[in-house]
Automatic annotation (TrEMBL):
<keyword id="KW-1133">Transmembrane helix</keyword>
<feature type="domain" description="MSP">
    <location>
        <begin position="1"/>
        <end position="119"/>
    </location>
</feature>
<dbReference type="InterPro" id="IPR053012">
    <property type="entry name" value="ER-organelle_contact"/>
</dbReference>
<dbReference type="InterPro" id="IPR013783">
    <property type="entry name" value="Ig-like_fold"/>
</dbReference>
<dbReference type="GO" id="GO:0140284">
    <property type="term" value="C:endoplasmic reticulum-endosome membrane contact site"/>
</dbReference>
<keyword id="KW-0812">Transmembrane</keyword>
<dbReference type="GO" id="GO:0012505">
    <property type="term" value="C:endomembrane system"/>
</dbReference>
<keyword id="KW-0472">Membrane</keyword>
<dbReference type="InterPro" id="IPR000535">
    <property type="entry name" value="MSP_dom"/>
</dbReference>
<dbReference type="InterPro" id="IPR008962">
    <property type="entry name" value="PapD-like_sf"/>
</dbReference>
<dbReference type="Pfam" id="PF00635">
    <property type="entry name" value="Motile_Sperm"/>
</dbReference>
<feature type="transmembrane region" description="Helical">
    <location>
        <begin position="182"/>
        <end position="201"/>
    </location>
</feature>
<protein>
    <recommendedName>
        <fullName>MSP domain-containing protein</fullName>
    </recommendedName>
</protein>
Length: 234
């Protein structure tokens, strides 16, 4: 099986027509028993994101089979949580694969191997293959540790944190705009009140001046009325 521990999708493997990313999983049957084959089945925890062909079948003695795995666009940052489960078991060559798996639905009758998924813009060399055998210990012995990489979960967390910070900045900008508008309205109101105050002071000053002028005039209207009445009585 190659790759052994991780299926990697790259930007360079994107199909121009379908926009899907493609990765290959190579299975090799190295059993040297005539008349025997290896039945296999490929499962995933996110079937809506992937198209696997073939997803089930059998491999004859000495044969090599390439499984095409296609990732739909839009899930590049979510594949880090996905896994592929490879089920395999020896079977008689020429047997019906679907019926074989119905007869071997019990986990004790089959062997399982899990593979992680990662999306990476750069190419990565294929890992050393492992041999499908009738022993669950063989993959553990021949497994080649993958190179340390930055966890995709951490990258997704950074993206979420960046989105949260952008949201906070947007709210701060809205608050600044509101404060600016409030300040402008307050300044206009203060200007209006100041003008109104000057107008009232001016009117009061004018009224006071008129009153003072009337009281200080000895020949004002009140005196003239009295004088006119007096002359009439005479």
């Amino acid at each position: 099986m190659s790759p052994m521990s991780e299926v990697i999708f790259n930007n360079s493997s994107k199909d121009a027509n379908t926009s899907r990313y493609r990765a290959d999983l190579t299975l090799t049957n190295r059993h040297d028993v005539e008349g025997m084959a290896v039945a296999f089945k490929v499962k995933t925890n996110s079937p809506e994101r992937y198209h696997v062909k073939p997803s089930t079948g059998s491999i004859g003695r000495g044969e090599v089979l390439i499984i095409r795995i296609h990732l739909s666009p839009g899930y590049e940052e979510l594949v880090s949580r996905d896994r592929f489960l490879i089920l395999y078991q020896k079977m008689q060559a020429g047997s019906d694969v679907a019926q074989f798996w119905k007869d071997h639905s019990d986990k004790s009758d089959r062997f399982e191997h899990r593979i992680r998924v990662r999306f990476n813009a750069a190419e990565k060399k294929h890992e050393s293959p492992i041999i499908l055998t009738n022993s669950v210990e063989a993959p553990k012995v021949l497994k080649t540790p993958s190179k340390p990489t930055i966890p995709s979960e951490e990258l997704a967390g950074l993206h979420r944190e960046l989105g949260r910070v952008k949201g906070q900045l947007t709210r701060v900008e809205e608050q600044v705009d509101w404060i600016r508008s409030y300040f402008v309205y307050s300044l206009l109101l203060q200007s209006f009140l100041l003008i109104l105050l000057f107008f009232v002071i001016h009117k009061l000053t004018s009224i006071t001046y008129i009153l003072e002028s009337t009281e200080s005039d000895p020949n004002g209207r009140f005196s003239e009325v009295v004088n006119s009445a007096d002359r009439t009585s005479l």
